[in-house]
Amino acid sequence: MKFGTKAIHAGLVPDEATGAIMTPIYQTSTYVQEEIGKHKGYVYSRSSNPTRDALEKNIAALENGKFGACFGSGIAAIDCVLKMLNPGDEVITSNDLYGGTYRLFKTIFEKYGIVFHFIDLSEIGNLNQVINSRTKLIWIETPTNPMMNIIDLKGASEIAKNHEILFAVDNTFASPYLQNPLDLGADIVMHSATKYLGGHSDIVMGVLVSKNKEIANDIYRIQNSSGAITAPMDCFLVLRGIKTLHLRMQRHCENGAKVAQFLAQHPKIEKVYWPGFESHPNHAIAKSQMRDFGGMISFSFKDNKIEDALNTVKKVKIFTLAESLGGVESLIGHPATMTHSAIPKKEREKTGIVDSLIRLSVGIEDAEDLINDLKQALK
Ligand SMILES: *Cc1c(COP(=O)(O)O)cnc(C)c1O
Fold first, then answer.
1. pTM of the full predicted structure?
2. Which residues are CB-neighbours of 377 under 8 A, at least 6 positions away?
3. Domain 245-378 is classified in which CATH homologous superfamily?
4. What is the position in ligand 1's atom list of the atom closest to the CA of 325?
C-alpha cells in the first residue's frame, strides 16, 4: 500500500458493536470481565485502550514498522527510550538537539548515571571518535532545530550495527511522509505527534515505532510501568489529523520551497537554512534520505542585528508568533529569545543560532499571501 492509502486505512476497522466507520473514543478506564481472566483483550486503559491501539497500529504502518506506542508527549516518548538504559551506559547525540530533549538528558538522566556525549554529527564519521564499549544508544534528530542540519541516517545505522548499539531517530521535523528511518536501519523512530502528525495544534502527544519484537516489548513494559500514556480523545484527534498528513505535507513542501526561494533573493537577508537548496552542505544526503524538503526554514539578517529579527516578528500579520511547528497555520519564532534562550549566547552562536535568526514553520495557507506577508514585514 502507498502512503496516502495507509494514512487513511492502516490499523483501522469499522467498530464491531455499531459499524461506526470512525474509531470510537473509548473513554473508559476499565473493562468488564465475564469471569476472572475472561475478557476481550482489554483489562485496564493504562495497559491498552482500543482508540490508542488503532492509532499505534496506524502510525506503525506509516513508518514501515510493526509496533507503535503512544505517550502523553514527545518528551515522554524520549523518556521511555532512555529508561531502556542502565546506569553507566553512554549515549552519543548531536550538539544541536531539540531544547527539551537536551534538558531531559542533562537534568534528569545524567542524575541516574547515564553519560551523554553531544557532538557534531553533520560528519557521521565523528561517531567513531566517541564510541566505546559502554556506548548503548545513538540518538539523532534530522533535520535539526533550528539550523536545519542534515545527518546521514544510513551512515549512522551502519556504525551502530557494527558496534551493536541501539539507534533511535527523532523524526518529528520530517514526518513519516518525508522520511522513514526504520527503512534506513534505525531501531526506533520517535515523533512529537504534537507537530505534523496531529497537524492542527490541538494536542500534545509522543510516539515510538519499532520493527523489532524484543525492543517493542521493552517499550510496552516501560509504557505500562511508568504510565506516561495518552488519552483516548487525543488519539482520536491524531487519527483524524493523519488522514490528511500526505496532503498537508505536499502543501507544506510546496509553500516551503516558495518561501525559501523568496527569502534567498531578499536584499536584507544574509543566509537561508533549508535543506532543499543545492548549496546546503548536506543537500545530497537530504535528497537521498528524504522525499522532499519540508516547510521548516530558518534565516538570518545581514549585519546580524537583533532589531531586524524582532521587527519582523512584530510586523507579520499571517505568520503568528508562537513556539511549536507542524500545524496548518504558519508560525514564526525567534530562537535566541524563545526556544533556545536557555543556552548561553556563546554556545548558541557556535551552532549558528545568532541574534538575528528567525525560524518559520510554513503552513498550508496560500503561498502568495505568505510571501506578501513576509515582504511587508521585511520592508
Ligand atoms: C516538539 C519536539 C519534541 C518534544 O515533543 P513534545 O510533544 O513537545 O513533548 C521533541 N523533538 C522535536 C524535534 C520537537 O520538535
1. 0.97
2. 311, 312, 315, 316, 317, 319
3. Aspartate Aminotransferase, domain 1 (3.90.1150.10)
4. 15
